[in-house]
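Backbone-to-sequence.
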């Protein structure tokens, strides 16, 4: 199982644990769960960085992914602990999410990544942290923000990535995951789908500083 798939399954388990703890009114349990996620992904990022193998398949993307996951956990923990998010917090997250998307796009273009991983990364760019109180429009209390989750409002980056993936695939008679050619012993990136990288730049640039993208 690749790291992105592992993270998706882990997110389901963690979300379930958080809902149970919140339902039981166990705020300390909520904080412990989120603290564990911060530690898990911070350690993963540190280990990958120490591995330092830029040429290894998926290394840069997995490192960027670990950093984004660590930031997500930190933001959720901050909200659960009652600390309001700052504009800087939001900007740092979106920049990290855009960098992660960029690395996934590069892997996709060179045939070492998948369309699924690109779309998952694009979703992270489009997501924003929302508490049940915000979602319902109610005043809310500490028990509401303790289970704040990342949600997509308008999938701008997702739609852009999907459109480019389809365009790239339609340009070749072979699967896009093998879209590369070799000439004179040197590997060349296929040009189709190369514009995908602009998606993450657009996703960050379209928002005003200090705000989550309201795209989705």
């Amino acid at each position: 199982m690749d790291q992105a798939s592992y993270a998706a399954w882990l997110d389901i388990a963690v979300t379930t644990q958080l809902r149970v703890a919140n339902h039981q009114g166990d705020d300390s349990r909520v904080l412990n769960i989120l603290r564990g996620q911060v530690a898990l992904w911070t350690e993963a990022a540190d280990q990958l960085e120490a591995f330092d193998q830029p040429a290894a398949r998926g290394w840069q993307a997995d490192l960027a992914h670990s950093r984004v996951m660590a930031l997500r956990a930190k933001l959720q923990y901050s909200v659960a602990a009652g600390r309001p998010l700052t504009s800087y917090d939001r900007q740092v997250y979106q920049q990290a999410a855009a960098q992660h998307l960029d690395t996934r796009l590069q892997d996709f273009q060179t045939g070492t990544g998948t369309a699924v991983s690109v779309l998952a990364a694009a979703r992270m760019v489009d997501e924003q942290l929302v508490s049940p109180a915000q979602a319902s429009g109610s005043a809310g209390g500490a028990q509401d923000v303790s289970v704040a989750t990342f949600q997509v409002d308008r999938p701008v980056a997702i739609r852009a990535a999907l459109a480019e993936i389809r365009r790239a695939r339609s340009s070749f008679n072979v699967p896009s995951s093998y879209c590369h050619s070799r000439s004179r012993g040197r590997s060349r990136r296929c040009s189709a789908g190369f514009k995908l990288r602009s998606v993450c730049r657009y996703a960050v640039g379209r928002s005003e500083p200090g705000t989550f993208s309201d795209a989705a």
